[in-house]
Write the structure tokens for this entry.
Amino acid sequence: MYSIKAHAKVNIFLKITGHKEGYHTLLSRFVRVDDLYDTIEFIPCECDSFTIEGCESVPLESNTIYKAYKILNEYTGDLDILNFFYKHKVVVTKRIPSQAGLGGGSSDAAAFMRLVKEACNLLLSTEELAQIGSKIGADIPFFIYNYPSANVSGFGEVVHPFDEPPLSLELFTPELGCDTSEVYKTYHKYLMRTMDPTSFFGWEKIDSKTLLGLIADPIALNDLYPAALATYPEIEKLDTKGWFFSGSGSTFFKPKTN
């Protein structure tokens, strides 16, 4: 049996830097959440086709793990992958909430790809794996590299590790989900004109704990927060004073106090 943890992430800050080829570019600090993760396992099983258990609420064609399986097959042409999954099923133990700004689906796909590389002895570098993963989702390269902290830019494909002390975080995820595509649509339609690259100059050089202390306004830190508030007005009814907003939401976070 093969097993791997697929960790959640938070965005300490997320700033939109432009828009091209139909997608938004960004600069963001991603921090891995070590105590919140899904588990991906490959368990021996005689399977007629690629089989995933634990994600029954997601149609197979929409499942990021299935997308990762397909793109690895297409990219490598390696029959060992096909043969392996005739003899193993994928079992996912979900702990990361969906549509929560924590990257659960992307993390699952990245962890799956890393585990397939090990199980099938794929001769792919981490850089190649990240490049392949970027075709599925913008967050996947960060999870492929598996850095504790990184500055992420471009469409998500540029990932630079950031050396900083581990940051222990408290999370609050309300019982509502935020559709990332809808939040980005709202941002593009109503807020794109407010983009100001000079407003976050040098943030990528400041450690996360210091930055959260310096820029205490969650709206200033995350360009998608106002878009999420406009798309999902019920978020404003939550008591989130002192909390920061991760990604496109709906999770809030703050440093734990000792």
About this structure: Strands lie at 2-20, 23-44, 52-53, 88-93, 149-154, 158-161, 169-172, 244-245, 252-255.
